[in-house]
Write a sequence for this structure.
């Protein structure tokens, strides 16, 4: 355990950040599963919500930008195969 006051504060902040990052990643995974089981008409609204969350997570640094792009591409492919 750290003895320096600033390091103790940094440890507290990093734990909060870790919880936030885990929350984003977990929610994204859950919404992906929901997207696969959704009906055709509600799939587009779920996809829009999921893309919004992915962009937010990438901007906050919870996931890497390339990871976000890959996930958004996966959503687009899923919707394209569903439509046609």
């Amino acid at each position: 355990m750290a003895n320096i006051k600033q390091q103790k504060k940094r440890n507290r902040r990093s734990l909060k950040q870790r919880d936030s990052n885990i929350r984003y990643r977990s929610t994204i995974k859950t919404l992906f599963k929901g997207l696969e089981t959704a009906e055709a008409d509600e799939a587009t609204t779920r996809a829009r919500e999921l893309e919004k969350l992915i962009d937010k997570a990438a901007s906050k640094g919870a996931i890497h930008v390339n990871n976000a792009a890959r996930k958004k591409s996966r959503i687009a492919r899923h919707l394209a195969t569903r439509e046609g």
Observations:
- The chain has three helices and no strands.
- The first helix runs from residue 5 to 37.
- Helices lie at 5-37, 40-60, 65-83.
- The mean pLDDT is 93.
